[in-house]
């Protein structure tokens, strides 16, 4: 087996993870295009499908997105008629809900997402998929410890 030089910038973990993300995002975006949404918007629809009434600030934290990026994505989704806002009864922030169209698009896109998810897992193997989950958790732990 070939030795891996971890000190070589060509083996940078950040760049490797970015490449993986771009490859998966490209594949998912191509599939979601038929529903006139991006893979990122599919993720936001998923969050709202299972947790209606979230606020943009809560979603920004969960998805680790800049507030401006979240705001831009939600604005696009509102313009497409996928979401609606309700003023929070406590007067702080707007709760976000799926519209009937948003629900319909999500449910159709979910069927396609399941196909791509299965395809990716079949291609990389369940062991590597579980390793990705483990890596993500370890990086989360590292980030939280650094924040302390």
How does this structure look, described?
The chain is mainly α. It has a single domain, classed as Arc Repressor Mutant, subunit A. The protein contains six helices and three strands; from the N terminus they run H-H-E-H-H-E-E-H-H. A three-stranded antiparallel sheet has the order 1-3-2. Helix 1 packs across helix 5 and helix 2 (39-50) crosses helix 5.
How are the SSEs ordered, and which strands pair?
Layout: H1 13-32, H2 39-50, E1 54-55, H3 56-63, H4 67-79, E2 83-87, E3 94-98, H5 100-124, H6 126-147
CATH fold call? Arc Repressor Mutant, subunit A
Helical residue percent band: 55-70%
Let me know the number of strands: 3
What's the N-to-C terminus distance? 39 Å
Strand content: 5-15%
User: How many helices?
Assistant: 6
Structural class: mainly alpha
CATH H level: which superfamily? Winged helix-like DNA-binding domain superfamily/Winged helix DNA-binding domain
Instruction: Write out the strand line-up for the largest beta sheet, numbering strands in chain order.
Output: 1-3-2
Average pLDDT over all residues: 90
Q: Which series of helices and strands comes N to C?
A: HHEHHEEHH
How much is the radius of gyration in Å?
18 Å
**Low-confidence spans: pLDDT under 50, at least 5 residues?**
none
Shape: globular
Determine and state the CATH class. Answer: Mainly Alpha
Total of domains: 1
């Amino acid at each position: 087996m070939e030795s891996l030089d971890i000190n070589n910038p060509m083996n940078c973990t950040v760049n490797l993870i970015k490449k993986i993300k771009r490859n998966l995002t490209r594949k998912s975006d191509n599939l979601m295009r038929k529903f006139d949404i991006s893979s990122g918007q599919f993720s936001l629809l998923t969050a709202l499908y299972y947790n209606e009434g979230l606020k943009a600030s809560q979603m920004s934290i969960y998805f680790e997105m800049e507030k401006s990026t979240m705001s831009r994505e939600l604005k696009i989704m509102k313009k497409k008629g996928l979401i609606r806002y309700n003023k929070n009864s406590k007067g702080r922030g707007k709760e976000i809900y799926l519209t009937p169209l948003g629900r319909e698009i999500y449910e159709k896109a979910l069927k396609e997402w399941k196909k791509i998810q299965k395809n990716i897992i079949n291609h990389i193997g369940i062991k590597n998929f579980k390793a990705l989950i483990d890596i993500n958790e370890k990086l989360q732990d590292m980030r939280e410890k650094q924040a302390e």
